[in-house]
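Feature request disguised as a bug report, sorry. It would help if multi-protein outputs had a clear separator. Right now it looks like this:
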Amino acid sequence: MAAAASSTDRPGALEITRKLAEICGAPFARFAGPADEVAGRTARWVAVPGGPHAAAEVLRLAAAHDLTVVPRGAGTKIDWGAAPAHVDIMLDTGRLAGVWHEPQGSSVAEIGAGTPLRAVQATLERTGRRLPVDAPSPGATLGGVLAADEAGPLRHRHGSPCAQLVGVRYLDADGELVSVGLPGTAQFGQAAPSARPGGSPAAGPGAGAPPGGASAVLGGAEVPGLDVARLLCGSQGGLGVLVSATMRVQAVPAGRVWVSRPVWTPLEVHDLVRAVLAARLDPAAVELDLPVPVALPRRRIPASHPSVAGRPDHPAVTGRPARPAAAGSLVVLLEGGPADVAERADRLTALLGPEAVVNHAAPEWWGRYPFAPGDTALRIEVPINDLHAAVYALRDAAGTPVPVRGSAGIGAVHAALPGSLPPERVASILAAVRGVLLARQGRCVVVSAPAPVRRAVDLWGELPTLPRLRNAKAHLDPHHRLAPGRLPGGL
């Protein structure tokens, strides 16, 4: 707030405001207000360009005046990750919206970065198609989803949003509009191959994936430069400003069912997930929900009480202890043709046992994070055979059950620590969990946290790819003009 308020007092501030208004239009350029923050860092100006060329002019203005720029979509994940060193211009992508070049029957669609994901799905649904992306953040834009490489339950079969990329248009730090992708049909050509079911989730630099490497291969054709496009995934605007993305689309499945089973321990989850994957049922998602159990007061009920009359299996009658209430749920999504889905659902319920239930709607928690605003949110990524060890390690380090939810089928889950925990306590929990994960080729990343925690802990942990990320930043943004400090290593 103070930074924004003092903007009007700085030499040239009003002149920059006038130039931003000329570029974007008077209603779309202003001094920032108290809500225009990035992880607690307030911007000086907000600019909402009306198209790619206007956005390029904003970046050129920033370069001419040595100003920093942080892109913002809907702001649903604006507090994720590290706070930038400073924010001069917040470039709002809300007017870079629309679903373009998506003729009926096409396998790809070009989508403006500022388009809400819900609007994308509604538009595609009119022609019986969908984007196989289901990011949990309500109201998120496609650009924001890609910038955070945010994925929901469908990542089990289709990979992260980055895996759906066929091409992108983005602005570099100097305001040059760059198009990357496979030339040919529908702007960028062939669709990306599906992710291997049960494979590791794709992730951008912010999530710890190797930043860089060989060119991507799409449809059997090598695509020079698409590795750079995929660098933008997870980079939180630190390597380029997304203008549009050409994404793979598919037909909406005719049949969908959710098969759920109660679970009691992480080890039981481990055994069930292995059995589901071994059965080759081609699940679209395998999700786990382990909420913190609520301890209810117990009272002794006599066998003669009316509430247990006629229930010979009740503990009050048998004298045996009752099985504890389920600690959580394992839910498998099956998609496809109605007859095929029904046959696979029958096989799955036989595999999971008599407690398995088939539903035609997702559970209430499906596709939602286990954390709330103000919590310390963690993301754990580990080979599926070690997921139970990671959950146990988190419980042991915290000294109490911790809510865990996510894609058990690929070993990518989120967890929540109370925001009231002191920073040093969070740091000790992270150290213990990361120590367990290190030997298992896993990672624990702090997605978001209260400001004192964010300042006190290492958000990313060990990152072997940091040197390559540093090289990418030096190549794409040598003056550290784009979201400086948002990437690992303070880049």
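(second protein starts here, but nothing in the output says so)
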Amino acid sequence: MDFSVLYIGSGQASWNGAVPLAKSGAKVAVIEESQYGGVCSNKGCNAKIILDKPLELINRVKDLQGRGIDGVPTVNWEDLMAHKHELIVPQDAHGKERLDNVGITTITGHAEFVDTHTVAVDGKTYTADKIVIATGLRPHVLDVPGHELFENSTDFLSLPHMPKHVTILGGGFVAIEFATIANAVGAQVDVITRSNRLLRQFPAQYVAEVQADLKAHGVRFIPDMNIKSAEKTAAGQIALTGDHEFQLTTDYVLDATGRVPNHDQLNLEAIGVEANQRGIVVNEYLQTSVENIYAAGDAIDKQVPKLTPTAAFESRYLTARFKGDNDGPIVYPAISEVVFTSPRIAQVGVHLDQALAEPDRYEVTEASYDGDWYRQVENEQGAKLSLIFDKNSKALVGAAEKSNNADNTINTIVPYIQMKMTKEQLNDLVYVFPSIEYTLQRRLPLV
């Protein structure tokens, strides 16, 4: 065999495990057909955070008008995009260097399986004892006439100029985060969804409040609408048609209707790896239907959230398994997630909507930050926290927050849940004062 382990894809589901595996002495290779480091590093979450940060700061400044600050800065989109390129363009080379520096063989090109131990790239074959599929997801394309006029998330993250009128199809992470960005930069924004619910995985109450805030800032939400076609107008705009004789002319259409796994491009059917439209089927050891082939990251058909940290966790688990350090099944820890709206919504553990629907099983305590002096230093209004306790064990099992600092709060709560801490134990902690963490801890006596 040419290699002990060969990874197809170089993103978080790959390099987090490949690097320590190579350092242990294993002969490792990574195949990448696009950019080293994967979607998150090059054309996903990292780029999004760079574009979002100035908008977050401006919102804080707006809240402090008349409270020590006069005047609100504006966003220079072109300068911001140049800053994004400054930080993101080098990521491809950095991703490859990270692999090269530990002796990993990097192979650039598109991979397809020849047999269960052999992969072909541009006519050349490579063999490995074990193969890990870490090919992630790509943007879904809405199948309607004129869909070639639509842009995807990668395109939006490299927009040279913000269009005057942006129309977004979809109601998930990408749709609502990018609607937040475009609106803050000054575009007229329409969000068109096939249902009447946004961000289904987050608490309905918190989502409704964020949606109401976006509406107050001019975003239009058009629910229960199926777009049927698109065409270019003589003026260079895009004319959309939909159900109920719906018509809309816009400057830019972002197709944010989801993401689909890339396994359909690997010739999996030739070797018997089971997969479906949600991803590759794996067992509790991340093993596919072929014994020596594994999968990790967003490529998997799984119930846990498809997130960057989850992919990294799975990659590290596989390395421990390959090294003989862990022969047990993968056991996922408490997984936190956040949507970068303004304000943020973040959660971990048992979802709030589930807890509210099962009052015999869960105790839900909700607290407002409106009366908290430290949150009011920035004049933040409407921030909320929900804590979820299991009625039998008394342990904290879930939490959700809507606030400017929701991501930090939930990160603080992650170990509480992982360690199954009770109310009494949570109150027996001392944090730096003042801080977001201390503010959170002072909410606990209320439970």
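Even a blank line would do. Unrelated, but nice: The first strand starts at residue 3 and ends at 8.
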